[in-house]
Design goal:
The protein is an alpha+beta fold. It has helices at 9-14, 155-160, 220-232, 241-260, and strands spanning 2-7, 16-27, 43-44, 53-58, 61-66, 75-76, 89-100, 109-112, 128-134, 141-143, 146-154, 162-167, 173-178, 187-190, 206-213. Helices cover 17% and strands 36% of the residues. A hairpin with a 5-residue loop joins strand 12 (162-167) and strand 13 (173-178). The relative contact order is 0.14.
Length: 261
């Protein structure tokens, strides 16, 4: 039997105790799952002699098929139980306590032995499987024990360096130093700030990926200051090594094309 259960990433980090209501089939108590009215018993099917299958001859061939009278059970109920109409079970809802372990991953399942549907005609119960799904998070993406967070920084902070404050999955805040000259795509690893493992041991890491945010909605004064900065910023190109390297490659490409012409 399957039951789908959704949790948050924070709950996957901490683990949780939960109460679930499971629609299930419960064995009928009056007939003890036999389907026969109390005081009576299912009788052996006279069509298949209790085997549940019958042989049918078609010309030179003999075929075997499920008995149509007892539907393969080998028994027939002449006096059905009034409490379950001969089914041997009734639909019910059960409340169960489950434990979600810290570190569980999306798609993993939890097995509850003997909490599934009862077997036919009073047979033992099967197992219940809780399939866990983890809701998408606004800040973090997960890969195993590692958490990833894409974080914006201002152009000034990226150029000059600075400090930003980030949330962690345990609910605390952590100050992270941004190095001078940080570029979009730079990654910083925060040790043991990721997810726990089901096997125990240290937590995984949290990886912070920076992206430099270009300012928008500038005032006339701000635009003028940026133009002044552009005019005075490193005529040699040393301030923008990536741009300098890129445009050198562009020039080399066109020089090669011109030489082939």
């Amino acid at each position: 039997m399957r039951y789908d259960y959704e949790i948050t990433l924070e709950e996957a980090f901490r683990g949780k105790q939960a109460e679930i209501t499971v629609p299930t089939t419960e064995r009928c108590e009056p007939c003890n799952g036999s389907g026969a009215e109390p005081g009576t018993q299912p009788e052996t099917c006279t069509t298949c002699q209790g085997h549940g299958r019958v042989r049918v001859s078609q010309g030179f061939f003999t075929m075997e098929r499920t008995c149509g009278r007892c539907q393969g059970s080998g028994h027939v109920i002449k006096t059905p139980c009034r409490n379950c109409d001969g089914r041997g079970a009734n639909r019910r809802e059960r409340t169960l306590q489950i434990t979600i372990p810290a570190g569980i991953e999306d798609g993993q399942r939890i097995r509850l032995t003997g909490e599934g549907e009862p077997g036919a005609r009073g047979g033992p119960k099967g197992d219940l499987y809780i399939f866990v799904s983890i809701r998408e998070h606004d800040l973090f993406e997960r890969d195993g024990q590692t958490l990833f967070a894409r974080t914006p920084v201002t152009m000034a902070t990226a150029a000059l360096g600075g400090e930003i404050e980030l949330p962690t999955i345990d609910g605390s805040r952590m100050k992270v130093s941004i190095p001078e000259g940080a570029q979009t795509g730079k990654r910083m690893r925060l040790k043991n700030k990721g997810m726990p493992s089901l096997r125990g041991g240290a937590n995984g890491d949290m990886v912070v990926e920076l992206f430099v945010e270009t300012p928008t909605h500038l005032t006339a004064k701000q635009k003028d200051l940026l133009r002044q900065f552009q005019e005075e910023c490193c005529p040699s190109g040393k301030c923008h090594p990536e741009s300098q390297g890129f445009f050198k490659k562009v020039k080399k490409f066109f020089d090669q094309e011109d030489s082939r012409a």
